[in-house]
Design a protein that fits this description.
elongated, about 85% helix, mainly alpha, single chain, about 150 residues, 2 domains
Length: about 150
């Protein structure tokens, strides 16, 4: 135990203000470099604009790590990945609406033809039934895609 105390005392005596200042400066530069790397990764997943990316990196690189707060204010809120999936979701909603409209039109046409034509041919009826079934399958597939997207999030 005495040896440990001697070593600790020797280390404590070796630490001077100059040594502590050097360690603080090295730590400051390590943090600065880490912030530069983080900003490069973060801005590359948030924007495709090379101008905006270079401005963000140069802000941290040239001005100091304290400008990270300015970067956090000007960076886009959502990533490109989030924007992409929101766009896909909107397109799926539109596609689902189109399928619903066509399904209703087909059902309406079938009902009108049945009423107008009591001698409706069996083959034509089967074809329209197949179309309705196809549209129902498409709708079910869209529901599965929506469920998959919901599970993913």
């Amino acid at each position: 135990m005495d040896k440990i105390d001697l070593y600790l005392q020797a280390m404590w005596d070796a630490i001077t203000f100059e040594f502590a200042l050097k360690i603080a400066i090295i730590y400051f530069f390590i943090i600065w470099i880490a912030l530069i790397v983080w900003v490069i990764k973060d801005i590359s997943i948030r924007s495709n604009s090379l101008f905006f990316q270079s401005i963000a990196v140069l802000t941290i690189l040239l001005l100091s790590p304290f400008w990270i707060f300015i970067y956090l204010l000007i960076r886009p809120r959502r990533t490109l990945y989030d924007k992409y999936y929101e766009e896909i979701e909107e397109n799926l909603d539109i596609f689902n609406e189109i399928v619903e409209e066509r399904k209703k039109e087909l059902e309406k046409n079938i009902n009108i033809k049945v009423i107008e034509n009591s001698n409706f041919k069996k083959e034509e009826f089967q074809k329209t039934e197949e179309k309705v079934e196809k549209s129902i399958k498409i709708e079910e597939h869209l529901d599965e895609v929506d469920d998959f997207e919901t599970k993913k999030d």
